[in-house]
Write a structure and sequence with these properties.
It is built from 13 helices and ten strands. With 323 residues, it is α/β, with parallel strands linked by helices.
Length: 323
């Protein structure tokens, strides 16, 4: 399996937040990902600002560390460079998460740094801090809290298949070879299925019967969950059928990535798939693995598609509960 590394752009003021930046960088590296930041560039150079934006564009997410300084002002926008970076990430559709220093931690900075721990842009800083805290944001009382918040968020991001990340070139080449082998295997299975008894047409007729039966088996669940793009946990209600969940997890089953145990619908699905074992579509184990016949079934299901009303829909039934 390819080891994907996410690139996280770290944004903060510089002189007053060196220790906090170092803690965040260490946490990102500890999680096996790539930190990025342009704090060594001098503020005020427009060409360097464009380079910073390109770095953000090439990153998977932006982390903002916020103390009491608003920082140097970018002349065109009248905003601090950290807010310009933050805005560019949002405009580019990048996930953003923040860590704000608590009042006791800020007071400790005052004692250590004096007036350099803050600056004269108090109204702008307050407005920006309110924006950051309105999205996914944790609070740090010390350096350990910063590492904890970063590691916790990256754990969620690592499960988000929508984030591209980086892979080693040799692993990528290996994945291409494996993909070709998989396609060849699928081709062989299809050939064998078409030449064997039952014929491929008969197999598809059998699959149509499976689909009709699965459509009649309800799959309902109420659960709490926080998706990676949400700031807090929600209450959800899931009302669908076992067919809808087979379609929802079909790509995961075909790719053999495994259904995550910490996703409540996934845990319930793994308990409710006895009928798929009876039909010889998955192996008789707790971790569902598709059989050759099962691979053909789930591919057939994706090729045929299912009616919109049969697809799994996650209905939000409450406002988020801040943790």
């Amino acid at each position: 399996m390819i080891s994907r590394k996410l690139q996280i752009f770290v944004s903060s003021t510089y002189t007053d937040m060196k220790d906090e930046r170092q803690a965040a960088v260490e946490a990102i590296l500890q999680a096996g990902h790539i930190p990025a930041g342009m704090e060594l560039f001098a503020a005020g150079d427009e060409s360097q600002l464009e380079i910073i934006k390109k770095w953000i564009d090439q990153s998977d997410a932006l982390l903002i560390l916020l103390g009491e300084r608003y920082g140097s002002i970018e002349p065109k926008s009248g905003k601090a460079y950290v807010e310009v970076e933050y805005d560019h990430a949002l405009e580019s559709g990048k996930p953003v998460f923040g860590v704000c220093l608590s009042d006791p931690m800020i007071n400790a900075k005052y004692q250590a740094l004096g007036k350099s721990a803050t600056d004269e842009h108090r109204p702008q800083h307050s407005a920006f801090k309110e924006r950051v805290m309105s999205k996914q944001c944790g609070e740090a009382n010390d350096i350990k809290d910063i590492k904890y918040e970063v590691l916790k968020t990256l754990n969620n991001y690592s499960q988000d298949e929508g984030l591209v990340g980086w892979v080693r070139a040799d692993e990528y080449r290996q994945s291409i070879d494996l993909s070709r082998e998989l396609q060849a295997t699928i081709g062989e299975l299809r050939t064998k299925a078409s030449n064997a008894s039952p014929s491929l047409k008969e197999l598809h007729n059998e699959f149509d019967v499976f689909i009709a039966d699965l459509k009649e088996i309800p799959f309902e669940l109420e659960f709490k969950y926080k998706f990676s793009n949400e700031p807090a946990e929600h209450d959800y209600r899931l009302e669908t059928t076992l067919l809808g969940m087979c379609f929802y997890f079909s790509s995961t089953l075909i790719s053999e990535h495994g259904i995550p145990d910490d996703f409540p619908p996934g845990s319930k699905f793994k308990k409710d798939v006895a009928i798929l074992r009876v039909w010889d579509l998955i192996t008789p184990s707790y971790r569902p693995v598709v059989t050759p016949k099962g691979r053909l079934f789930f591919e057939y299901l994706r090729e045929c598609g299912i009616a919109e009303e049969s697809k799994a829909k996650f209905i939000q039934v409450s406002e988020p509960k801040e943790g």
